[in-house]
Mutator-like transposase domain-containing protein
Amino acid sequence: MRQIGKGFAGAFKLCSTLNLPRLTKTAYKSQDAKLLKVVQEVAEESMIKAATEIVEKKQNLSSDIVKCGISVDGT
């Protein structure tokens, strides 16, 4: 729900609509914090992997400059 910009209020409405047990605000924040931690870990691993790949490619080139494109999400 956070990803689509609805947060706790959106999750509350969704659970009500689907006849699911509702999370308290405290429980929602707890789950949100856990997800944030995992997302950060995955992002860091991904960036380390990308940097390692660039360094490996640089070793195969005669030039000291390695050209590589990047893509960044605007959020």
